[in-house]
Amino acid sequence: MNTGSGSAGARILDRWWAAQSLAENSIGHWQIGPLALWIQRFAQEWRLAVDHGGDPLDSVMVREMPSARPFPEDHPEARRFGFRKTSDKLKLMPVLADRPVVINPAIPFALPPGEELTLYLSTAVWLQVLVGEPAVTLLEVPTHRPSDTWFGPSTREGEMCYAVKTSARQQLENLPLRPHRVISALRIRNRARTNLAVERIKLPVPHMSIFEAAAGQLWTESVTLEREEDGEMARLQLGKKPPAAIEKTRLLSGPRVKPDKALLIRAFGGLIGGFW
User: Fold this and answer.
1) Average pLDDT, stretch 217-243?
2) Beta-sheet strand order (sheet of 159-166)
3) Are the C-beta atoms of residues 5 and 206 closer than 8 Å to each other?
4) Whole-angstrom Cα distance, residue 161 to residue 54?
5) pLDDT per residue over 138-180, tens digit each?
6) What is residue 3's predicted lDDT score, i.e. its pLDDT?
7) In whole angstroms, how far apart are CA 143 and each of 94, 107, 156, 163, 234?
8) Which residue has the higher pLDDT, 36 or 196?
9) Of 16, 167, 169, 224, which is most buried with the most CB atoms under 10 A?
10) 11 phi, psi to nearest 5 deg
């Protein structure tokens, strides 16, 4: 099956994460945004190869099962997995990154006292290849690996994260839809007496989940940051699901790390802000 035609939104509707079957001695091929993936099944072996060389802004979605493309045996990212007997069950599971993701708005802005806003952000998903029943994870790879960045008040205090530059859009309809990215709605409230400088936004994605929406897009639960007093502290809250306006959502994958219900954090060295 090839789903490479149509608009970007139509391609996302393909739901590449749905459970599938791959016949013995067959090859499956996927192009999910910048990531190319080949999976080949034998009676006692699975073979996988991945290529991350695509454009990170690509919105292409291609799924071919079975595929006439040969398996790239000489590819440096080719892997083999041995089994007593393979099953035809196959699933590609979207999960969130294994580190927090620091969003860098293309144009930094400030939030005056008493104001609040919602930003729509998107980050690249990681992909788990699951086979058999019960499922076994063969491989986990990012659809696009962002660059590394340090986030914290000093070189001694903070953590290693991924960095993404974005327009940080306030209107959902202006956000490009891509099959390898998951959308987050981040609400920021400034209850303090001074302006809140929004220059770097850290999403705690290891604590977050992925949901499938009725229209086919991938979403996380809603995220709220509330700054209650002047200074560095703010309260972080994760909702139970995406915003109410997103219809018929279904949980696909849970958090890597179980979050607390509410966290009081250093806003400028935690969720928002930080410097080198």
Assistant:
1) 86
2) 147-151, 159-166, 101-105, 201-203
3) no
4) 22
5) 999 999 999 999 887 778 878 899 999 887 788 888 888 899 9
6) 47
7) 9, 26, 31, 15, 32
8) 36
9) 16
10) -65, -35
Residue 12, classed as helix, strand or coil, is: helix
Q: Which helix (H) or strand (E) holds 8?
A: helix 8-12
Give the strand pairing for 262-266 and 233-238.
Answer: antiparallel
- Show the tokens assigned to 174: 């202006």
Return the amino acid letter for 49.
Answer: A
Mean pLDDT of the chain: 86
| C-alpha angle 251-252-256 in degrees, rounded to nearest 5 | 100
Task: Tell me the pLDDT band of 13, cut-offs 50, 70 and 90.
Answer: low
Residue 213, pLDDT score: 92
For the chain, how are helix, strand and coil distributed in percent, rounded to 5? Answer: 5, 45, 50
At 141, phi and psi to the nearest 5? Answer: -140, 150
Residue-wise pLDDT tens digits, 86-125: 999 999 999 999 999 998 888 878 889 999 999 999 999 9
Structure tokens belonging to residue 194: 């001074």
Burial 146-173 (b: 16+ CB within 10 A, else e): beebebbbeeeebeebbbbebebbeeee
| 249 token code pair | 């959502």
Residue 246 bridge partners (DSSP) = none
Q: Helix and strand tally (H, E) in the chain?
A: 1, 23
Instruction: Tell me the whole-structure pTM to 2 decimals.
Output: 0.87
Amino acid at 66: P
Q: CA 228, 154, 96, 148 torsion: positive or negative?
A: positive
